[in-house]
Specification:
This protein has about 775 residues and is an alpha+beta fold. It has 22 helices and 13 strands. The strands form 4 sheets. Strands 6, 7, 8, 9 and 10 form a 5-stranded antiparallel beta sheet that branches. A hairpin with a 5-residue loop joins strand 8 and strand 9. The longest helix has about 35 residues. The N and C termini lie close together (about 5 Å).
Length: about 775
């Protein structure tokens, strides 16, 4: 409370021992040299260890229990070398048929067989003129491919493995034959992504936004420095973890993207609170400690929510997906650690000089505070320089407050406007088609894209994604096997969507029948997915019905189709788990049933709208060419799952930050409309700047050559933009206004069983209001004043 002179008076009854977070913040600010040196040592040490011992990233994953995986294992047991992972070396000679370089092809095939990890190599040319065609040579004889089966995913071998492959095919290149690497071998040969341009653009925009929003040069530099250090430390830790287990190739980019975004946001939240304290006359060390004890606690809650959402990806029961969540969570952890330790240390180093260098008048939170009453003005009023009076609360309100008051007067109109905007953006979502993006969408500078184009021209697009058909007839009596083969042959005649299906031939031991189905369309086309399900679920099972034989559709493309089916089936479960966990966290922290429900529902709406934008750009092709996308592509099967977990977690940053201020005012005044206006006024500048920075960081990754990274970058940027504008400026204030005090209502029995969490400011004594106090929000806990 304050005396009549405006000086702050401590209430002895409300004072408790300073909490651990405040002590941590003050210690870091006071011993800033020690903290900064420790972080720099961690930075250099972990980066060096990662350079020396860090693992590699590859898209090597298996789907145990799926029919494609079972089929590959069955095939491998009966046909040595056939059960591995396939890739191609594609050959094209514009001057003559490949038979004209028979000796060079034979030498290349022989050299490839000697390489490590190679199970088998198949030449595109017949061994003798009388031998039957292999199927790997085009009708004009100018295009062919050497089939290679590896015992593991080639992308996990490391770039040095290509030296042996290059040496093996050198005689062909010397003879003028174009040689390209297709499939997973081509992915190994892709240029190593750095995304340095994206990071520089993201940082450049962040500098401009911070300087324009807050004016102070040093205050703008601290979030960038801490975010960069946190990301390098996090990615280095991820590299060391990758030495023990396999992470997807997109993992470091994803970790960098998330780490930069949340790192800048978290540091910004603390710095604005700290600088407001300095402007109010507090000591720099005490201001840093208080910032960590208040905004730092909100950062921890937000970080935990993000990590919980990412951990929800393990509900998919696919380690490939779960590890993507782990990769992003690593840099979230380092961002939180940097915010509560390195940020106060840098604030302690800057001291009161933090606003010495500025490009405009420095501002912080814009927290409206009562000012001394000027002479000649009645108590309860305050004169502006123009002579007009301020509201009776004595606060100087800005345009955000007036905007919130407009929402108060017409909440239904603002709610309807927000719902219409989200609904229009979400329309494309209803036509979403999940799939796997094939090499045809890659830049032509990639060897796997050139290999894809050569095979498409020579054999048709479906040859890039053949299905291997396997029939296990070991349980069928030998006398019945010819009839079984005849039944299968009839079932596989004139199959819709198939360009060709080779007759199934018995293996050397006679236990299997194998063949190849070539789709009419590209691997990523809807027709290929339809063909896969027809072969797997109808044609083959129907042909062997009642015989005891088992059928499989396997191969790389079949594995991706099984992966798609698995993800599609488990996506609703992941959404449910993540929403439920986030709902519980918000309920525990803010102790308002409708507040938690509102947060979950509005986040679902914003994510649906961002999904719609992604579908319109990538699947419909609206603006895709300008983003470097060749044609239209399906939505990569795991992108919606990743987007949901990441966006749902990140949106809670702004939710926690805004609701924290609204709840503070509500607990102090019990005036719901004014609390919403005050919370929006205080947080609008920080949330707007933080969101603009995060949007810029994510959007900069659209420049990546990786289509999945482009998709994630656009989806995350649009999600944050929608969340910070439509949701925070239209839907949240409108809904909170309509709910009024009932937003903070919590049943007494639920209040008693929920754990007690002091969200911000452990210096205040918590209290419990009973249901008998007759006011909305009974049972809510908060600080006394």
């Amino acid at each position: 409370m304050t005396s009549q002179s405006g000086a702050e008076v401590k209430d002895p009854g409300s004072q408790v021992r300073a909490g651990r977070l405040r002590l941590l913040g003050e210690w870091c600010a006071r011993h800033f040299i020690t903290v900064i040196v420790l972080w720099l040592l961690a930075l250099g040490g972990l980066y060096g260890l990662n350079t020396a011992f860090g693992g590699t990233y590859s898209d090597n994953f298996s789907l145990p229990g799926t029919q494609s995986d079972d089929g590959a294992r069955v095939l491998g047991r009966h046909v040595p070398g056939a059960g591995g992972i396939g890739a191609q070396v594609v050959l094209y000679d514009a001057r003559r048929p490949l038979t004209g370089v028979q000796s060079q092809v034979d030498r290349a095939v022989g050299s490839l067989r000697t390489l490590p990890h190679v199970l088998s190599v198949t030449s595109p040319l017949p061994s003798t003129p009388a031998a039957p065609p292999t199927g790997a040579l085009s009708p004009d004889g100018r295009t062919g491919y050497i089939g290679i089966q590896f015992n593991a995913n080639p992308t996990s071998f490391g770039g040095s493995y290509l030296h042996g492959v290059d040496a093996a095919v050198q005689p062909l290149r010397a003879a003028g034959v174009q040689v390209e690497y297709g499939g997973l071998l081509g992915e190994l040969a892709r240029p190593r992504p750095t995304d340095l341009t994206s990071e520089i653009i993201g940082f450049g925009v962040a500098v401009i936004v911070l300087l324009a929003g807050f004016g102070s040069v040093i205050a703008a530099a601290i979030p960038l420095v801490t975010a960069l250090i946190g990301v390098i430390v996090g990615v280095s830790c991820l590299g060391l973890i990758a030495a023990a287990t396999t992470f997807a190739s997109v993992s470091p980019t994803l970790a960098t993207m998330i780490g930069l975004g949340v790192g800048i946001d978290y540091a910004l939240f603390l710095i604005t609170r700290h600088r407001q304290r300095l402007m109010d006359g507090a000591d720099p060390v005490a201001a840093a400690g208080r910032a960590v004890a208040t905004s730092g606690r909100a950062v921890i809650v937000s970080g935990c929510t993000v990590i919980v959402a990412l951990a929800g990806l393990y509900v998919s029961q696919v380690s490939f997906i779960g590890k993507l969540g782990v990769a992003a969570a690593v840099t979230v952890v380092t961002a939180v650690a940097g915010a509560i330790t390195l940020v106060p240390a840098l604030l302690g180093l800057a001291g009161r000089r933090i606003d010495r260098y500025w490009v405009r008048r420095p501002v912080a939170e814009g927290d409206p505070a009562p000012a001394p009453t000027p002479k000649g003005v009645e108590r309860g009023e305050r004169k502006r320089p123009t002579g007009r009076t301020e509201p009776a609360d004595g606060a100087v309100h800005d345009g955000w407050h007036r905007y919130a008051q407009r929402v108060e007067r017409r909440p239904w109109w603002f709610l309807l406007a927000g719902l219409v905007a989200v609904g229009v953006l979400a329309i494309p979502l209803f036509s979403i088609r999940l799939g796997h993006i094939d090499d045809g969408a890659d830049p032509t500078s990639f060897t796997d894209r050139r290999a894809y184009d050569l095979i498409s021209a020579g054999f048709g697009p479906g040859a890039n994604g053949p299905f291997i058909l396997v029939v296990d007839q070991s349980a069928v009596p030998a006398a019945d096997r010819p009839a079984l083969a005849s039944r299968i042959g009839r079932a596989l005649t004139d199959v819709p969507g198939a360009a060709s299906i080779t007759p199934l031939q018995p293996t050397a031991d006679g236990q299997l029948l194998t063949g190849t189905a070539i789709p009419s369309g590209a691997p990523q086309s809807a027709g290929t997915t339809t063909l896969f399900h027809h072969l797997k679920d109808d044609a083959l099972p129907g042909a062997v019905s009642g015989t005891g034989a088992k059928t499989y559709v396997t191969g790389t493309t079949a594995a991706m189709e099984d992966f798609l089916d698995l993800i599609t089936a488990r996506l609703p479960l992941i959404i449910g788990v993540v929403v439920a966990l986030a709902f519980v966290i918000i309920l525990i922290v803010f102790r308002g049933l409708l507040v938690a429900l509102k947060a979950a529902v509005l986040n679902l709406l914003s994510i649906a709208a961002s999904y719609g934008v992604v579908v319109a750009v990538f699947q419909w092709g609206w603006g895709g060419p300008s983003l470097g996308i060749s044609g239209t592509v399906p939505i990569e099967s795991y992108v919606p799952m990743m987007m949901f977990a990441i966006v749902f977690g990140l949106s809670m940053d702004y939710e926690v930050f805004l609701l924290a201020r609204v709840q503070e005012s509500w607990l102090r005044t019990h005036e719901s409309k004014g609390s919403v206006a005050l919370g929006l006024e205080i947080t609008a500048r920080v949330i707007s700047c933080a969101a603009l920075i995060m949007v810029s960081v994510f959007a900069a990754f659209i420049l990546s050559d990786n289509i999945v990274v482009k998709m994630l970058g656009l989806g995350l940027a649009v999600s944050v933009l929608i969340d910070a504008t439509i949701v925070r400026l239209l839907l949240v204030p409108a809904v909170m206004t309509l709910l009024g005090g009932s937003a903070w209502w919590l049943p007494g029995w639920l209040d008693r069983i929920l754990p007690q969490v002091n969200r911000e400011g452990e210096e205040a004594t918590p209290y419990r209001r009973s249901a008998s106090d007759g006011r909305p929000g009974a049972g809510v806990q908060g600080p006394t004043h």
